[in-house]
Amino acid sequence: MTKFVDEVANIPLFSACSKKDLQRLSRAADELSISAGTDLTVEGTIGREAFVILSGKAAVLKAGEKVATLGAGDHFGELSLLDGGLRTATVTATTDVTVLVLSKPAFNGVLDEIPTLAHKLLVSVAHRLRESEQSLNH
Description:
- The protein is built from five helices and eight strands; from the N terminus they run H-H-E-E-E-E-E-E-H-E-E-H-H.
- By secondary structure, it is of the alpha+beta class.
- The protein has a domain at 31-105: Jelly Rolls (Sandwich).
- Helix 4 packs across helix 5.
- The longest helix has 23 residues, at 115-137.
């Protein structure tokens, strides 16, 4: 658990979390190794988990077009868990990746237990929405 806490403490999303909060997170999440070429989310499907990339890279595709590259510290999948909607993009591992996975019940529990995380996630989602709107206007 100490290795997990040390790894995750350096991720911006979790930087305001206490060691105790990170230990709670470690109990709620699963750490998985995923092979390159694997789809982690598929656009238009129901989302059942959120992800944080611990290592490796992944491509974000919307309507088959690559719109972003994600790496260590990036997170995705939380929108479907927050609003119950369908996935807005396909995320595919472009290298072998290690991800932290939170199921919907674990995700909701973590947000209830760790208010600083809920706040940072809200700011992150708002930032992504603003970037998306700006790219549509240009």
